[in-house]
Write a structure and sequence with these properties.
This protein is mainly beta. Helices cover 4% and strands 53% of the residues.
Length: 736
Amino acid sequence: MCFRSIVTHVGILWNNAGTEFIIALITSVNYGHSAYQLVITSISSSTFVNITIFNTHFEAALTLEEGETTNITIPNSAELLADGISSNSTVIVRSNKPITVFYFSYGWSMAESCSIFPVNLLGTQYYVFSPLYSHGTPEFAIINYDQTNEILITLTGPVNYNGTYYQKGSNLTVVLSAFESLQIQSSASLTGTRIHSEYPIAVLSGNTCDTYSEECNHVLEQLMPSNRWGRTFLVASIAAPNYTDIITIIASQETEITYSGVSNNTVTLQNGESFSIELLSSFSLVVKATERVMVMYTFTGGYYNGYKVNPFIMNIIPIESFSSSYVINVQSNHKNYIHVIAKTSLISEIQHDFANLSLIAVGNFVTKDNYTWAVAELQMINDSIIMKHCTPFAAYIYTIEDSTGMGTTAPSVNRASQCVDFNVTVTLQAYGFIQANWTNDACADNYKLQLSTAEGLYILQEEIIDGTSRIFFGLTVGSVYNLKIWAIIADKMCFPLTKQFKYCGIHMCDSLDLTVTSLANGAIQANWTKIQCVDSYHLQLHKADNSSMLEQKIVNGSMVIFTGPYNHSVYNVTLWAMYSDEQCPPLKKQVTHFGIHMCDSLDLTVTSLANGAIQANWTKIQFVDSYHLQLHKADNSFMLEQKIVNGSMVIFTGPYNHSVYNVTLWAMYSDEQCPPLEKQVTHFGKKTTVIAKAEVLAIGKEPIDEKLIKDAVENEVYDLLKPELHPFVKVRVVQV
């Protein structure tokens, strides 16, 4: 699997990326029947990863490229015993470059996940969160690092260990060798139990199968040491509708807690004490403490979108530890949700950059009005995704579906701001000014800009700004300029990036035009007027829905033909005028193309009429909306008449004198046209009406109708009638 990028401010305390991790498989009610997986994602290319189970023959080695993710199955034989020390259960993950490790466990009708922290974040003092609502066994596991370690445990619940019964409030001391693990279970909640060690350890805690609303589930989370807790927390409910989730606050010393949602409340906690707050669906909470505290979230399950879902627990990230980027591990066989808490302006940016997000709920914090929470559903794809931005935010990943519930903090990847290349674009705007934009890939504090002549002899402007955009006025048309940009990080300037551009003036892009013509051979032709300063023209042909690009061309001229041949459809042609690696705003035209033979069947006949008019006839063809006709003298000196019709015949009434005329026909469709068809006709003008007196001499027995003879004379068709008239009459014209 590979992730796709959608950098943020450097988090100060939490970072899941590291090169060494220690993990233990904590017990669930499905002991011996659960499946365990580690999801490993590389941050850099050529990352070598080695996975072992201490004191066993298990080993897996792999090489990952940047952004690549793989799943490693851990045998359930490494699962911890119910109570006691294990010397062959610690899973060790090592790599030559930073990676993230995500933990999944699956059993019958239950599942759980948690983000694993690297050994450099481990500490020597922890307070347990191990709830007991109505079912299961509260538990925690201690995983020792690489040297013998004496550990003091002050219990908040009764424990049987190594044949000895320890009451609530008792101290239990154990000594663990390198990479040994210890699991402790109780019949009562162990929340608030203090664990103090001589050297760093990892702690996992939870319950084998706790129940709140409906069914039980194995709940589990890796805890943070008390020196990495926070003072301010933003909590937004993900409770199922009509259900209540639980927020638990744990203190390590006397601390005053203020929490506010719809109202403000204050409580004081002592060392090892905890306090729980119920949180309804769609509600949010702001927690502030005078000293560092740990805040844990319990999703209690219930019915969600028609499914019976299971509970889970997860850390709440303190606002001081909001991170720069997160790895979102997506499982293709589950419905995956991401829960983001960020400054309000960032939510829309994340939605814009992250195409897989489909927002289903958004809300604001009542007493923290510049922060917003959002819940989005992710596509069900077997993939990992990195979300990143230069503003710190929090991200949680969870799954809620039938008989399943699991959630945790998304693995954070804090990258310190560093000197990296970034992209700069220079664009000519409508009013003649130049706008420079660049990407904040370095997450710099600010930027220094310097505009100079191309030779660098004259510095025209120089300043330091906070943003990623700057407008320049008063440039000379036709001149070449250098724009230098330095990223400034912690008062140090990175090596500058230089962008050279040519200023072509206010009207350069205004005169760009584009016409598109459907050709009879199935090709599509684009024409435009060449404009000053432009080095080349970039054209693309797409279907109208922009589903795929069919052809693209980069040319220096003013015409291009997309040869195809293409079938009947609607197409988009987009034109970019390129200059000094920059471009005018794209110009797009749509054309209805009827394929290779549409215009071939177009014909035209032109007839000279006796009344001085000229008649044009043609055969109507498929898809044509209208026909545009023009009548000119043969020398095209000027247009005499033009008509736009829908039929197949038109008469230019005139009357017109004896001369040679051109009739031109365009078949129009969707504002485009077939190539024009032209016919020439010799026109003899309007013929003189004959007014005559006729003397009719009867030579037959039956007289002929005088009107018939008169009409024949006046219409000059007497010669045609004469063969039929001869047996009966003789006509002598006596006056004209």
